[in-house]
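agent: user wants the full assembly modeled, not chains individually. Plan: 1) parse entity lines 2) check alphabet per entity 3) run joint structure prediction 4) return tokens. Steps 1-2 passed, two entities, 813 residues total. Proceeding.
--- entities ---
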Amino acid sequence: MLAPGVATRGEADQRNAGKSSPPEARVFVRDGLRSYRKRYDVREVYWGAGISAGLIAVVAWISYRGAHPDPSLMDISAALQAAPEGARPLERPAEPPSARTAPLGGVAHVSEPPTPGAAAGGTERGALPSGLSADGFTEGKLGAYSPDTLYIKIDGRAEFYESFGVQSLHAVTLEGPAGASVEIELYDLGESRNALGCYNGERPPGMDSTLENGSTFRFDRNAAFLARGRHYVRFVGSDESAAVLAEVRRLMELFRRELVGEELPWGFALFVEQLKLAPAQVGYLRENAFSFGFAHDVYKASLSPADSQEDMEAFVSVKADAAAAARAALQYQAAFRSQGVPAGQTADGLPLSKDEFLGSVSTATSSERWVIGVRGAPSVERLSQTLEQLRAGLRALPPAVLAKAVPSAEAGEAATAEEAAGAGRVGAEPEGAGRAPSSTAKTLEGEDQ
Amino acid sequence: MSTERRRGRREPEPTEPSGQDLQQQQAHRRIERRALLQGALGVGGACAAAGWLSLAPAHWPLSLRDPDGEIGKPKPKISSLPEGGFVVPDAPSVADLGVAHGSQLRDMLRGALDALGGIGRFIQRGDVVVIKPNVAFERPAALGATTNPEVLTALIELVREAGAKEIRVADNPIESPESCFARSGIQAAAQAAGARLYLPNPTSFALLGTPGATWIERWPFFWAPFEGANKVIGVSPIKDHNLCRASMTTKNWYGLLGGRRNQFHQDIHGIIADLALMLRPTFVVLDATRVLFRSGPTGGSLGDVKPGHTVVVSRDSLAADAYGWDNLLERQGEALPAYFEKCAARKLGQPDWRKLTLREVNVG
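--- prediction returned ---
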């Protein structure tokens, strides 16, 4: 239906045909179908105006939004402060004693800061025993941290625990009377060797440890440290008051009782039980041992007194088979050479490397699937003697311990316990790794620090 | 319909055009030609303009091309600290390093500052002063992981005496700033001394531009306390550090960064050199009343802390740190951490403090 005043194409043609005007020399429309409209329907004008107004409004809105973007698009700092993907839930900090109650006159921006992964309620306790509150100390804030979020709790120190394969940290603070407090940090390191490595890595030189019923622990003024099973625990008291020290001791007993213990890792069994070294002398390096990038899964024992200028260490690592051990021994030999100068051979043909400044000698060799070595020995005689003691100690390891001696999974040298046990007996040396005959296993006890 | 269409297509009867008709025809042709040319020009121009806008390379004038969408993104505001930092002019005949030993903290601090020309050289009436302590961990101050609150109190009092209009205390601990400020005693000390405490929240950060920095050329910065400030003082403990070996006054600025700053640990020495570039303070105070000589930066055992009874003040944070490394951490003879060399290469300080003038005082 057409609006008034709008002619049909036929009517227009009839009108045109009736005129005596010359034929139009049209350029594009030559067949006479072109219609000329003298007037326009007012509703068309309205529609056109409406659509135009709508389009203008859209353009204006886009222009305005472009000039005034959503502030959240600009808030880069907030985005960067957010928790990384995969961050595990953390605690929501309890009100500190004075933070919220402090007069606000002097506080400019007090608001809840971003605590990535904050979770209410403390449901994520990990292996933390229940019933921590006692003797006037009450359980306060609880936090759980993954390797990805560990830096939030201990920025700058997280890498130390990461080097031992930390899987989680659970931290809780016990608030005591008069502002006293004890903070508990419970690290799950996955394996007991990592826990012991971490423990000994933080042990000050010369400080003794106690090994008792599967727990290795020490007290150090206001603090105490415990390695038990796969866990490493730090108890940090706020001061040395009697109440704090008593609380630290109570907690130590509680955790020794509640945490699941494990037998000593095979390396500790070798050094402590076979070679009679003190537990405090033994350490475990999960990666980058002696700053050698290839050296991982290494047990070491410090053989020099803490107050001496010597820095002699014996070390042992297990590989999947004898060939792998022989290859690794060659890597160690090359690495020692790179740090010193060639210094001849031992009596049984092992190449020695000498530290140019300290004058100490180092070498490594293999014995079946074991890599053994000595680093920083003051003399070739001490080095050879120590290597022989290591061999003897390995030969004396009980089958049950040998069965546990497998390369760490991280090392990519997975071998089944059965295979490892079958190949674990110390026997002939690999080719070129000369070995002096030995009878009994002498101990290194006399060199205890 | 069909009849009508046939009629519409019927050719008109050919007639002989008159002269007037021919004139009209010519005029009509001129009008048609002009209209055609105008239309063609208009359409062609519009097509060319549209082609230019949409296809011209992004850097050409008027080009709307945005192949990766970057041009269309909103541009965040980049803040910047004053060019040249917050330093005060050189003064001849004064020491570069002021070292004070003793137990009376206020007197020690005053003595060390006097060696550099006195607090009046640095702070004038009406100044708005930001003081940046290290409040990184929720630890009691006795454990040496954070600035000694008594040193902070003494510093605030001296700055106030010099006539500062406003004193702001600020740091950005990653975890629970309220707890860190409370447990370390910094909050109580700052408020008792009348300073204004700035704790971070997401809106208190701004993107800071640090031209020439390797890692933080543009990075979220704890900006709120710096709005309107004209003097900046760092007061930092002296600590062993697991990654950079020693955390002192230069590393202290790390606490002003926001974002996922832990990623910088992959190049810890590089980021410390960037921090020295980012913030040129009025002066720094190395708080060696306690020395966390191992297990840093967190510590935990009092066995890791020894008394230092010393404060060091300098305009040159690198020199103060080098002095601390040699004499307070007692690592003289060991090579300085790599960040010293990186900072020195940028001429951001003198790592050989022996080349500077040192004035040492014993107080109380």
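agent: reporting back. Residues 60 and 394 of chain A are 83 Å apart (CA to CA). Chain A touches chain B through 71 residues (CB under 8 Å).
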